[in-house]
Amino acid sequence: MYVLGIETSCDETATAIYHAEKGLISHTLYSQIETHSAYGGVVPELASRDHIRKLVPLIKQTIQDGKLTPHDINGIAYTAGPGLMGALLVGAATARSLAWTWGIPVIGVHHMEGHLLAPMLEDNPPQFPFVALLISGGHSLLIAVTGIGAYQLLGESLDDAAGEAFDKTAKMLGLPYPGGPKLAKLAEQGQERFKFPRPMTDRPGLDFSFSGLKTYTLNTINSTEQTPQDKADVAYAFQKAMAETLTIKCRRALEQTGLNTLVIAGGVSANQEIRRHLLDMAQAQGTRIYFPRPEFCTDNGAMIAYAGCQRLRAGQTQNLEIFARPRWPMAELTVTSH
């Protein structure tokens, strides 16, 4: 079963083809970073226009790269939410139109389920059950996973998501968009000079809150002369606080659930300092830990094709009405397997 995956939830236009037995066949991605960098963030209308311009050529390229024809495609999966409504509609309308034209089933995929299942694309994938930490620009979630669609929310961000906090802090430091990776690069030049708080680690629970850390960072920046070294030291302290906070929460989640496998996914999971802290924790506790490869940490079509393939194989399909939800709780997803 060849499944075409389409991802257009924000500012990445991505497509992929996944086969149920052969695995990932091909994938392509077009990044809009250059378009949005002039504005310091994603402009929804511009994102939608770029998706319209790039999506169909990318689909053609992905099919060609896989040495396939449209007649070989057995199903289509697309990101139905959450995300920017205009961007989601481009992918939804394209997917539904192709499915109708080709006479094949189509299914809308939850964006965060795609991220959650991205490590399944690796040669040595995790086995259910496990604890998952999903950290991206819009989400910070801890979830107990017992199967595809069987998700128990353990904790979430009460304000800023981890990626959002990275980007806002980078902006405070005068770094260009996208700020998260540039902050991580700047932190490599920093020194152990400031001690930042580890939010909500001094009380029970698995929820996150990063707005206070962001405010503390701003006050620290304003208390310095803002030399290049000052900024590097602030970046170092912020990143370390974020990494240790996430690690503490993951350790608690594993203890609370009694599980011994941890999956990390989402754009922020590419951060090497966060990975190092989590790997050290996992090694100390004898926990199995899994990350997607860096190219599948950020938004991509492969994760959507994989997630869609699993649901289509379980017999799930949707009618040809255009379905897109900018807000979509994972708790509403149906279980397909255990």
TrEMBL record:
GO BP term, pick one: tRNA threonylcarbamoyladenosine modification
First-listed, main subcellular location of the protein, grouped into a coarse class: cytoplasm
CDD domains per the UniProt record, alphabetical: ASKHA_NBD_TsaD_bac
Chain ranges of the Gcp-like domain: 24-306
InterPro entries: ATPase_NBD (IPR043129), Gcp-like_dom (IPR000905), KAE1/TsaD (IPR017861), Peptidase_M22_CS (IPR017860), TsaD (IPR022450)
Ligand binding (substrate): L134, I135, S136, G137, G138, D167, G180, N271
Transmembrane segments: none
Location in the cell: Cytoplasm
HAMAP family from the UniProt entry: TsaD (MF_01445)
PANTHER family: TRNA N6-ADENOSINE THREONYLCARBAMOYLTRANSFERASE, TRNA N6-ADENOSINE THREONYLCARBAMOYLTRANSFERASE, MITOCHONDRIAL
Family the entry assigns: Belongs to the KAE1 / TsaD family.
Protein name as catalogued: tRNA N6-adenosine threonylcarbamoyltransferase
Species of the source: Methylomonas paludis
Upper lineage: Bacteria, Pseudomonadati, Pseudomonadota, Gammaproteobacteria, Methylococcales
